[in-house]
Amino acid sequence: MTRRTALLAIGLIAPLAATGPACGAADGTGPTVNRVRIVDPAGRLRDHAPALESLTRVALAAASTRLEIIGVTITIVPDPGRAIAGWGIGGFAPDAETVTISVDPEYPGLAALLPARLPALVAHELHHAVRHRRPGYGATLFEAMISEGMADRFAIELLGAPPPPWSDALTTGEGARLLELARPEFDARGYDHPKWFFGTTAAVPRWTGYTLGFRLVSAYQEAHPGATAADLVTTPASAFRR
After folding, report:
1. Which of 31, 35, 47, 125 has its Cα between 20 and 30 A from that of 187?
2. What is the DSSP letter of 16?
């Protein structure tokens, strides 16, 4: 049984309760318990609720063995508009204490896809939450690319999951060309995030920012053997500049 299969098997029987106390906050204040909850007043996720909760909890437990996760609340909601197109679920971590998982309840074959997709997405967002504490997600294009690439590397290293499609959306030639196109904007705080990450313009394909960030982080790890995404969670993006 692979590590990933074992984790998923544990998740299927995880209890429906908050996780146990996490390590105390650095200053001794604030909530220290990580929580998972479903907010679904209309019951749109009723059929999927047990799997959503258990898979999320096992991902949280696994991530907590590698990262210091403190006082994070993971909220699962039915929201097709915020699910990744063609993926059925989506995630967002706006700060160090909040992760939202958005689910499209009508996505074809959702129940069968959740074990393969949800744990990696949760791990990705938890890496963001920890990075929000220090040095932060980032305000520039380059910083955002590194944060996204590192979060995907973390999910892969933690669960043995394959790279998601957004981390390998470009050919080698396309990647080199778009990296040069992005370079003048690396330090721009007013960069267009939807353009670089969601492909809202014809000049930049969908998921370009994710793929470039993934390749930049992977190249750094190749040059620094043994450096894991968990180890690098507090490393500033500047360390990844060539």
Report:
1. 125
2. S
